[in-house]
Design goal:
Layout lengths: L4 E14 L8 H8 L8 E14 L10 H16 L2 E2 H4 L8 H12 L7 E8 L5 E4 L3
Parallel strand pairs: 1-3
Antiparallel strand pairs: 1-2, 2-4, 4-5
Length: about 140
């Protein structure tokens, strides 16, 4: 399998709450833009996170990545940090917690620890109707 680039996707799940509200708008404007998702008490989702790494197959192991290592990194830096938490509290440096912003933050949390192979993309499924993909660009 020399010189073959393979991608591997691992699937994770976490549940978290958040409130959609922009600091640039007042409460009435936030309600108009985000609807019931801007409720002061917030709302929650059962997220599905997919992390895809891509690289060369190691000639000694026959693997593109060690899934135990990847699981340990994702659990430590994302799942343990976000599962059953209020995202607005855990990710205070992210002023608007849409899933578009959340997926960028997950990328930022993982990329220092997943480098060989590198992350190819991250996907977040917020609901059955809403899925997001981020390629880090």
């Amino acid at each position: 399998m020399a010189n073959k680039r393979i991608s591997l996707t691992r699937v994770y799940r976490f549940s978290a709450a958040h409130r959609l509200a922009s600091p640039y708008f007042n409460d009435d404007e936030n309600r108009k833009i985000y609807g019931k998702c801007s409720h002061a008490s917030g709302h929650g989702h059962n997220y599905i996170l997919r992390v895809t790494v891509k690289g060369e197959v190691d000639s000694l192991t026959g693997m593109v990545a060690n899934v135990d290592d990847l699981d340990r990194i994702v659990n430590r830096h994302v799942i343990d940090k976000l599962d059953h938490k209020n995202l607005n509290e855990e990710l205070k440096d992210t002023p608007i917690l849409t899933s578009e912003c959340l997926i960028s933050e997950i990328w930022r949390l993982l990329t220092p620890y997943v480098q060989d192979p590198a992350i190819d993309k991250i996907e977040v499924e917020e609901t059955r109707k809403n899925r997001f993909k981020y390629y880090g660009q």
